[in-house]
Amino acid sequence: MTTTVETAIGPAQTMVLNMGPQHPSTHGVLRVILEMDGEIVVKAQPVIGYLHTGIEKSCEAKTYSQVITLTDRIDYLAPLSNNLGYCLAVEKILGVEVPKRAQYIRVLLAELTRCASHLVWLGTHAIDLGAMTVFLYTFREREEILKIFEYLSGQRMMTSYFRVGGLALEPPADWLDRVRRVVNNLPGHIDEYEDLLTKNKIWLGRTVGVGTMSAADAIAIGCTGPLLRASGVAYDVRKAFPYSSYDEFDFNIQTQTAGDCYARYQVRVAEIRESIKIVKQAIEKVPAEGPFRAELPGIIPPSREEMKTSIEGLIYHFKIFTEGFTPPPGEVYQAIESPRGELGVFVKSDGSAKPARVKFRTPSFVNLQSLPMLAEGRMIADVVACIGTTDIVLGEVDR
Amino acid sequence: MESQDTDKNPVVQKLRDWDAGAVSEVIEFRGETTVVVPREHLRRACEYLATEPSLRFSLLADITPTDRFPMEPRFEINYHLVSMDRRERIRLKVRIPGNDPVMPSVTSVWPTANWHERESFDLFGIRFEGHPDLRRILMPDDWEGHPLRKDYPTEGYQ
Question: In which element (H, E) is residue B34 found?
Fold first, then answer.
């Protein structure tokens, strides 16, 4: 396994160092085989699959609606983004138009998810690099966002709140006041984190010039999301291929050109601020009244009232929840911008009630491929910073 | 599946003009264009789509195999291409028989294909010729069988 390398004092043997799968800085169960020349990484090889649960295989044994609960568990830090990607894909196959009210609520919640996910990233990344305080602050604010999800869906994390055709439930009457309160407080809290980090000498020392990646390299390796934008490519699925009425919202793509760990930090912090902007616009746009689910008899469940009062409603309700619905045969690929990058959902229907194939193009899986490029030639301590700023979720890498 | 052999899409038109043999069928479904490419033309077609200045499909988003067991040709490999600055997507599809699941690797065109092809090999048993490091990626190295094949059971012990 070891190779001989040229050093300043002559040829020397490298050492193979195993990092993970149980290592606190790998954010789950990532294993990296490092070939070391003293403190310098000669070769870094990520080994994955420790959290592989066969979600794509399970999808083929479930009806279209049952799959939604599995999508929560892929990227467990951004369950609503996964719900959204999957629901949009199935809606595309069905050709369903979702009511505007549901679309705006979806945008609002997807952006809150992005805030929550970036907050977790910021806190855990800071703790990796030795800044304990930020972690305690970001988790405090994240909890406020999770309380909104709980208020709407009954669950903090595994919400399954988006359903094919719209939402699972009518949101409670005063939920927007809660959202308003949280997003009004959040910018001040971000200033707090930035006070602690942005000009912190230790933070700068650990991140500036560490793990640099050029735009061409990032595209070649398939990176998307903040990783790509920190290298200067303004690619955001929300702008490039708008979905769920994102084209009606006013926001900017946040980019940096340095392509190092610090640039990725700057991009993510700026993205939280942009998301707050979108959420504030969505609060104004969401109508107080109106349908939260499309109407499509036999495919989308009827309202509770219709189910209780009409015989057709009851039959449809019964059939949808026992047999499922059957989309026309075909294949679609729907991409959304998850907090980590392009989340693509490929759904193939063969005309039966269960999908013939569901594939999740998860951004973490692809972004992790860049780790050797980021870490090789640098000190071992920088590997931790590089893993941190690629912002992987192992549930999403391994599926 | 709605299928028509029209040339409404300029990308398909360009691909046809470049080499008529590289396009064996065009499928339009829900606003998405799928070009069925014969296996022997795939790598050349990918190089053309990635490097042609007027197309610039610089990002390979995903490689998705599907298993049509027991129908033949058994496997369909879908390549999802994105042109980031032109804001355009296209899907290439290659159909290969079950008794010969071999594909040309496109890692030389898009290095990101490395892990996607390893995943396809791991879960579907499709071999990619010219891949630099074709090993299992999600399942253990000594695993037998390819779990996402339709003839592989969903439940049970190995």
Answer: strand B32-36
